[in-house]
Write a structure and sequence with these properties.
alpha/beta; Aspartate Aminotransferase, domain 1; Aspartate Aminotransferase, domain 2; 2 domains; four-stranded antiparallel β-sheet; 15 helices; PyrdxlP-dep_Trfase_small; kynureninase activity; Kynureninase
């Protein structure tokens, strides 16, 4: 267990010894700002910006021939990026691709695997997952002629923060065909035991998919060990690939022979794609689940920032993330609990993701006040201030300053100057 101290001197010492400290210079930090919202949208990196500008220049210079230059790199861009992403989850290169967005990729996964029968027709979910996952699940069961009430099985949280893994497993009854769960809960940062849950699903002949949106780029996963059926994720949070960046998709190699639920031209084998056949010639890899033309401007920043991740190493990122979030919790215990703050995430390393969930009854107004102090937090209903000290660009000194500001806002009742009326984007 790391021994922390509550002095500014200690924070500065931690920064001096931080093996990842030089990567901070690769990101564009606004002067004087403490950016704690990397779990919603990561900071822009210089590498991402350069990669995007390069693709724009290639389009400008080559026009239609951009698909042929550099050994057809951009026509095969999803393979280039898939191989880089595969390292973060320890998957085979051909099991990972990038395409569309998280919600469409959930639709792609479910439409591929959800083949309900009279005996097995339910999809198991939890009640704390991000809403887009539920929207996709609900619409998929409706497409099969079921009502949500009869075909969507919801495992409820017992405390509004965490999901019981035992209850999830108990819920895997004979009528369940598919399970879709988050690796990390967005509200409480709970990290589920993916291997245990996946093994229990497979023992029962149930397909399981994972949403990695709140773990990719901050938690190392070993998909060769976990062995899920499919997974989806966005690339704009910890991976900092830009607003609305193209999303990730994993499919286990044992399923390559399956027909995609949503087939498209770019899922066709490259060797026959331009024969323009009316019969789909499925590429037998994750790239066979592609649909339309790849959006290069949405993909290029991901290539740039993944170079940083591969240099830093996901295991090193995880080590600092665990340490700096533990440091934030330590300071919160020392200085904030007397002012109504509470930690709403697991404290055990093996059970938490990359952000800290600080709870307060005035969380929304505190977040408004934080912004006027040049701190960028993330608010979640109904009382959560999400704080992500991202390992690649947040310092220990910034965490120290953050806690000072949080203390002052409540001690001096600064939050009372702000309205509780929600803005369009909170």
């Amino acid at each position: 267990m790391q021994a922390f101290e509550s002095s500014l001197h200690f924070a500065k010492q931690k920064d001096t010894k931080d093996p990842l400290r030089n990567f901070r210079e690769r990101f564009i930090n606004n002067q004087g700002q403490i950016y704690m919202d990397g779990n919603s949208l990561g900071l822009c990196s210089k590498d991402a910006k350069e990669a995007l500008y390069h693709v724009i220049e290639m389009w400008e210079k080559h026009g239609i021939d951009i698909w042929s230059i550099e050994d057809s790199k951009y026509f095969l861009y999803q393979k280039v990026l898939g191989e880089k992403l595969a390292k973060l989850i320890h998957a085979n290169n051909d099991e990972v691709t990038v395409m569309t967005n998280t919600t469409i990729n959930i639709h792609q996964g479910i439409s591929t695997f959800y083949r309900p029968t009279k005996e097995r027709y339910k999809i198991l979910v939890d009640d704390l997952n991000f809403p887009t996952d539920r929207y996709a699940v609900d619409s998929q069961v409706k497409l099969k002629g079921y009502t949500v009430e009869e075909a969507v099985k919801v495992i409820s949280s017992q405390d509004g923060r965490f999901i019981s893994e035992d209850l999830i497993i108990e819920g895997m009854t004979d009528d369940v065909a598919l399970v879709l769960l988050p690796s990390v809960l967005y509200r409480s940062a709970q990290l589920l035991d993916m291997k245990r849950i996946t093994e229990e699903a497979h023992k029962r002949g149930i397909i399981i998919g994972w949403d990695l949106c709140h773990s990719i780029g901050v938690v190392p996963h070993d998909f060769q060990d976990i062995n899920p059926d499919f997974a989806v994720w966005c690339n704009y949070k910890y991976l900092s690939a830009g607003p609305g960046a193209i999303a990730g998709f994993y499919i286990n190699k044992k399923h390559f022979e399956k027909e995609p639920g949503l087939a498209g031209w770019h899922g066709n084998k490259k060797e026959t794609q331009f024969k323009l056949l009316n019969k789909f010639d499925h590429e037998l890899s994750a790239h066979g689940w592609q649909t339309g033309t790849q959006p290069l401007f949405s993909m290029a920043p991901l290539e740039g920032v993944l170079n940083i991740f591969n240099e830093a190493g996901i295991k090193n990122i995880r080590l600092k993330s665990l340490d700096i979030t533990a440091y934030l919790m330590y300071l919160a215990d020392e200085r904030l609990t007397n002012y109504g703050y509470a930690i709403g995430n697991p404290r055990e390393d093996e059970k938490r993701g990359g952000h800290v969930c600080l709870e307060h009854e005035e969380a929304y107004r505190i977040c408004q006040a934080l912004k006027d102090h040049q701190v960028i937090p993330d608010y979640r209903e109904s009382n959560v201030i999400r704080l992500a000290p991202v390992a690649l660009y947040i310092s220990y000194e910034e965490v120290y300053r953050l806690v000072e500001i949080l203390e002052d806002i409540v001690k001096n009742k600064e939050y009372e100057k702000y309205s509780n009326k929600r803005t369009l984007v909170v």
